[in-house]
Amino acid sequence: MNPLIRWGVLGCARIARLQLAPAILRASNATLVAVASRDASRLDAFGGLFGRFRAHASYAALLEDPNVDAVYIPLPNALHCEWVVRALDAGKHVLCEKPLALNSEQARQMAAAAAANDRLLMEGLMYRYSDRMRQLFRIIDSGVLGELRSINATYRFLLDRKGSIKEQAELGGGALYDIGCYPLDLIGLLTGSEPLSCAVESVVRNSVDVNLSALLRYEGGLIASLHCGFDAFPHMQADIIGMEGRLEVVDTYLDTAGELVLHTRSGRERVDVAASDCYRAEIEDFSAAILEGGRPHISIESSLHTARTLGRLLAQAQA
Fold first, then answer.
1. What b/e string do you get for 83-95 counting C-beta neighbours within 10 Å, with b at 16 or more?
2. What tens digit of pLDDT does each residue of 138-150 get?
3. Of the residues 101, 155, 301, 313, which has the fewest C-beta atoms closer than 10 A?
């Protein structure tokens, strides 16, 4: 039998219920063995969906479980740092839902704990495992766009759930934390660096940003724009523009089938994108890195870069 990484989940959050727990069950090198929640009814509901596992009445109890190799943390953003560090100190490998941290200081603390305990830590940015991203970077790497000059990346939706933690400042709410981290991560991947300067405009409601735009200037003359919010009609797209061409990426952070549109002097070309099982790929990649002593696809260095830039943007948004 192939070895399996034994996973525990801290909390019965919506994303754990709808995405990550099912992905663990689909993965070829992982198994779900434990779930923790302070709400017994939610644990019972989880069991009804995903079968037998050890139910822990506290997060700390799950971290003490010797039969758990890795934990997934989908807790509110403001709790990430505490429970990531506690999990690493307990000897567990950690996959933490995005954003990894509220600021660069927290991200450094997490990375230091991972190094000190010789455990893997990865930020959960499932979109990086999609065929859409594979096709995007295949085109970028081909050089057909020429030297990049402009990146415009947007992720918006209309938040209509009352009492959502996304609008609670004390839990790490706000559009930049919730969805702006996706375009920020993509811009970081495309530029390979941190911005020389940035400028932010935002609309703040109940102490959290609900509509935010930023301009980021990079070496070589590239300017990127980032737009995020949850107070308007949904929109998710990236436009990557070079000296020789332009690439349209609709549904940028989804794993659905679709197409990219490449514009060059030769004309317009549609590039097919296949549907992907991104959450399963994320679990399998992280589990394989544990089993094989390697590094997962998403590096902690990349997350540290993102955390530093995110902190710079929020400092302006909240000024």
1. bbbbbbebebbbb
2. 999 999 999 999 9
3. 301
Which regions of the chain carry the CATH code 3.30.360.10?
131-275
pLDDT tens, residue by residue, 230-280: 999 999 999 999 999 999 999 999 999 999 999 999 999 999 999 999 999
Q: What is 205-261 written as a DSSP string? A: ETTEEEEEEEEEE-GGG-EEEEEEESEEEEEEEEEEEESSEEEEEETTT--S-EEEE
In 3D, which of 214, 203, 138, 208 has the Cα closest to residue 170?
A: 208
CA distance 126 to 105: 24
Active site residues: 98
Question: Which residues on adjacent β-strands are paired with residue 178?
Answer: none
Answer whether residue 319 shows pLDDT above 80: no
CATH code of domain 5-125: 3.40.50.720
Q: Say yes or no: domain 131-275 is CATH 3.90.980.10.
A: no
**pLDDT of residue 55 exceeding 80:** yes
3-class secondary-structure state, position 218: coil
Radius of gyration of the chain (CA): 20
